[in-house]
């Protein structure tokens, strides 16, 4: 059903009620903002009548153009709206969810393709989507399952890097594969350094909020507002916040405001209402313009895009969007994406934006998840310690017959990309942990899937004593730098007893393979996955691992 809402020409003072109660930018920054916004000719949708839950209740709407205010002395003093009438159309929405994924990584023969290269991935969106699906009584779409994001969702306690060295420390553990006798798991954990929280620099945050009609569900805009309140409670007086909203058009809701002015910011958040179609392109342009005026030496400037991922007006091609974002990241302003709600979640676009914006992609389905992403892990999410982190493992064909990387299908790189500093890769935040898991088949194992080549080199009957299983290389850049640094270490061909962190990561990797319908786990099923995860819960202060076990039980029931 489609209906039209009446439109009226409103007075400027009532159109942007929020802007009237917030201080407009002044001084040089205001001049720059005004110049950039005038050049963009960005239209905006002002606050509308909403009920207390944030749902639409009718009323009036209008489209506004932001114009700089200049006093008699010629100084820019903020912004004023000029009103243009436009209809607002709200229509029923079909399910248009789309996910970024690829086929499972294939089994590689070490003698033919000894080198595996990929970018790290600290996103966690996939786990939250899986949880929301299972809690709703449905198995998640297989394409929504990205195993590396499932494994990296959980906090681990790996050895921290030494002071004065690299910003992270790799730890490699080799142990028996739970689901496949005759193969091993190579568990590679990268632990980032966590600087003292008190030492973090001031933070400039630009919230880019999707207020389109598709955001009116309770688990979208209303949950988004609650989530931002949690974040605001953890900002410091030296931090600053700005808010840009977009729906059909885009506009400045709140100019750069000190985080200490909590009341003003909360009124701005509370004024956001849903309605109209999505104009993500102009919203991004305006957010970057505002962020550019806030950036300063010694400060960290970030854009947080909160959306259900529905970019249905303007630039709606992920490739075009990624080109635009990639051109902006060199300014030092990073973009992270927070997904809300289901039904039209455009995961492919969200992933493309976050990956090319040097940020993270997270999906927030509950207030507890908002607490995790925006409070508990705020430092790691917003303060990178290493840019363009790439991983390369060279396997020794004398020891390893076959291998496969579990997950990271959308993060694969060419071998030559590893040393090419022009190739973008993922960022590692303060205190973040990244885990990668390979399943390897030793030479001579009956679990080998491929036959030896007739004309290939003769293979050893057993692993030579003291041999290396492989060689690990890591490249990264210091934040803001253009030249990469290299860290290398051998991987001994020695099995060891895995700790609870490695065993739990293996259980989650197994869960992901079961959800994707992979055929590499044999007779190993949900009962075995649950038993492995329960036995590896270890220290679980926030209950994340206990929740994972419960989700496995639900998946087992839904799979029967």
Sequence-ordered SSE layout with sheet pairings:
Layout (H helix, E strand, L loop, with lengths): L2 E3 L6 H4 L1 H4 L6 H14 L2 E2 L18 E8 L5 E9 L3 E3 L17 E2 L5 E5 L5 H11 L11 H5 L16 E9 L7 E9 L10 E8 L10 H12 L7 E8 L1 E10 L3 H9 L9 H15 L5 E8 L10 H12 L4 E7 L6 H10 L4 E4 L2 H10 L1 H5 L1 E12 L4 E7 L19 E4 L3 E10 L25 E10 L7 E8 L7 H17 L9 H10 L8 H16 L1
Parallel strand pairs: 10-11, 10-13, 13-14, 14-15
Antiparallel strand pairs: 1-5, 2-3, 3-4, 6-17, 7-16, 8-9, 9-19, 11-12, 16-18, 16-20, 17-19, 20-21
Write a brief caption for the model.
By secondary structure, this protein is an alpha+beta fold. The chain is 28% helix and 26% strand.
Categorize the overall geometry.
Answer: globular
- Note the gap between the termini: 38 Å
Percent of residues in helical segments?
Answer: 25-40%
Count of extended strands: 21
Strand proportion, as a percent range, falls in 25-35%
- Please count the helical segments: 15
Q: Output the CATH class name of the largest domain.
A: Alpha Beta
Name the strands of the widest sheet in spatial order.
12-11-10-13-14-15
Counting helices, strands and paired strands, the structural category is: alpha+beta
> Low-confidence parts, pLDDT < 50 over ≥5 residues?
1-32, 51-91
Strand count, sense and barrel status of the largest sheet are: 6 strands, mixed
The CATH homologous superfamily of the largest domain is named von Willebrand factor, type A domain
Number of domains: 2
Radius of gyration: 25 Å
Task: Quote the CATH topology of the largest domain.
Answer: Rossmann fold
Average predicted confidence as pLDDT? 82
Question: If classified by CATH, what would the architecture of the largest domain be?
Answer: 3-Layer(aba) Sandwich
